[in-house]
Design goal:
single chain, 3-stranded antiparallel beta sheet
């Protein structure tokens, strides 16, 4: 998956382990918004993650966004999810409005994750 940065998002009940393979990334965490209230989401924590850093995220810890704060250095990260998921929620930072989106993973070995050529 190629991303310049992520929006504020959940993990659909999955555990997420992330390792920085190259460069560095900034993780910003947020509390879950209160249902029915439209207000700007405020960051609760920021962490700059250097190469070889490993971090963990789950919905019980809140929401987060991951971004490359550098405009010149590339960053590569590996994300492991358990269990796998195909839907997640992302949130509008200005209004805390929740949106659902379908997640599709692809790679060079499989045309689409979950399908095989066998």
């Amino acid at each position: 998956m190629f991303l310049c940065c992520s929006c504020i998002h959940s993990h659909s009940g999955s555990h997420c382990f992330m390792k920085i393979l190259h460069g560095s990334l900034r993780e910003t965490r947020y509390d879950w918004p209160e249902e029915g209230q439209e207000k700007e989401m405020k960051a609760t924590a920021h962490e700059d993650l250097p190469r070889d850093a490993v971090t963990y995220m789950s919905d019980t810890l809140g929401l987060h966004r991951v971004e490359n704060a550098s405009h010149t250095e590339k960053a590569i990260s590996l994300h492991l999810y358990s269990p796998a998921f195909d839907m997640c929620s992302w949130f509008d930072e200005r209004t805390s409005t929740e949106h659902r989106c379908k997640i599709t993973f692809t790679n060079k070995v499989q045309k689409q994750a979950g399908t095989t050529d066998c």
